[in-house]
Design brief:
Blueprint: H1 2-16, E1 22-28, H2 33-49, E2 53-55, E3 59-60, H3 65-79, E4 83-88, H4 91-104, E5 111-115, H5 119-127, E6 130-136, H6 138-155, E7 167-170
Parallel strand pairs: 1-2, 1-3, 1-4, 4-5, 5-6
Antiparallel strand pairs: 6-7
Helix pairs in contact: 1-2, 3-4, 4-5
């Protein structure tokens, strides 16, 4: 998801003639190794694609929606017009991004992209303040996990300890398509 988030941010900017410079706020709930891998994948890929972006330190909110909002508002206060984008790596972060960009009217000035798809994030996507949601594909994940287990049991096939989970990019333009909805 982190790499896909970076790729989409780059593609969105290219398609809309947006110069990629400024500061990027990165937001997460808690420190968990697999989630840190997702953030690091974003950091690595976006540094390759847009080296002029300044990636701010990750702000954590301990799964507290109020703290998530405060983190975003604090970055707005400190960095103001230098903020280019907010990246949220779970639903609480994404919801806070959608709310802050809506309430401040800055959805056209700061790009909001997040993972997951709770009601606030989907409303933000529908209104256009969120430019994308990077969504896991639970059916594909479950199907592939079962098939890997069967292959391992029946054929003694080896499989990687780390698996790249498939995801899709939901945008205001495609969010009603059956595969995304």
């Amino acid at each position: 998801q982190g790499t896909k988030m970076a790729d989409y941010l780059f593609e969105y900017c290219q398609a809309n003639g947006i110069e990629m410079k400024g500061k990027v706020g990165i937001h997460m709930s808690v420190v968990i190794p697999i989630l840190e891998d997702k953030i690091n994948a974003f950091r690595t890929r976006i540094a390759e694609l847009a080296p002029d972006l300044e990636l701010l330190d990750t702000l954590y909110n301990d799964n507290d929606p109020v703290r998530a909002t405060q983190n975003l508002e604090g970055q707005l206060s400190r960095h103001g017009g230098k903020l280019f984008a907010f990246m949220g790596f779970n639903a609480i972060c994404g919801s806070a991004i959608a709310r802050v960009l809506t309430e401040t009217g800055m959805g056209d000035q700061i790009i909001g992209i997040a993972t997951d798809s709770d009601a606030d994030e989907v409303a933000g996507l529908r209104s256009g303040v969120m430019k994308a949601l990077i969504l896991q594909t639970p059916y594909d994940q479950a199907y592939n996990a079962v098939m890997d287990a069967v292959d391992h049991i029946l054929n003694e096939a080896e499989f990687d300890k780390a698996i790249n989970i498939t995801s899709v990019v939901a945008t205001p333009e495609n969010m009603s398509e059956p595969k995304i909805a």
